[in-house]
Design brief:
DNA-binding, alpha+beta, Arc Repressor Mutant, subunit A, homodimer, 7 helices, DNA-binding (chains A, B), WH_DNA-bd_sf (chains A, B), transcription regulation (chains A, B)
Chain lengths: 109, 109
DNA sequence: GGCTTACTTAACTGTCCAGTTACGCACGTT
DNA sequence: AACGTGCGTAACTGGACAGTTAAGTAAGCC
């Protein structure tokens, strides 16, 4: 779940979204953000360390590609909670207000 | 997507997991962690501000309950990426190595 | 070899955040 | 009214982190 920390930053989420549309070079990516290139470089490093991104050297370019596996982990983490909103979405408020117990679910930390 | 930042902390994820099994008082929660009660109080505040948790005063107790809506938002954010790992999970490495384009997806930031 | 291009790393700064102890407040009990 | 209990908030500290500019490394070109 290290991916969660990586995805907590909006810039990094945007990078992920961009890379979902296809791989890109580092400078190419940096050009689409209002921050400096080193800043993007560091973001890419965080994403890399979280396993969300893979680099490939192509000449002097560094081409970044999305690796969806941590996202799938996140999906798996989220899965057990899914039943909580799957049904009766609009009945939630009243249910919470009434304080009914759910009695399910364990960690997954 | 403010929930992502809230869930980036392991302690808070654990609190969420505990509350998924049923609501609990603040002190009750704090007792299950190695940190001080004020620390948990602050975590609960972050979760509250992220909408992940609801409080209800019951006498002098503060009973916390999970609100799954931000989790469902997170699920929705994750949804467009799902097709990336849905099929050919083992073919991913080679696909990334080959550098094939995906050509889909926008932000969601 | 010497220069440009494409990125990363280093060093520094400001801000945010989790943890602590000390204090404050409201409810309940006697 | 006085006191204990259950929490929250305040004030402070240490560490992590995003941003900057400046320096370093590696590939391509002349």
């Amino acid at each position: 779940m290290e991916a969660l920390a990586a995805l907590a930053d909006p810039t990094r989420r945007q990078i992920v979204a961009l890379l979902a549309a296809g791989e890109q070079g580092a400078g190419e990516l940096a050009g689409q953000f209002p921050v400096s290139r080193p800043a993007i470089s560091r973001h890419l490093r965080v994403l890399r360390e979280a396993g969300l991104v893979q680099v490939r050297a192509e000449g002097q370019r560094r081409v970044y590609a999305l690796d969806p596996r941590p996202l799938s982990e996140l999906d798996a983490w989220l899965a057990p909670y899914r039943r909580l909103w799957a049904q009766r979405l609009d009945a939630l408020d009243t249910e919470i207000a009434r304080g009914r117990r759910a009695r399910t679910q364990e960690d997954g930390r």
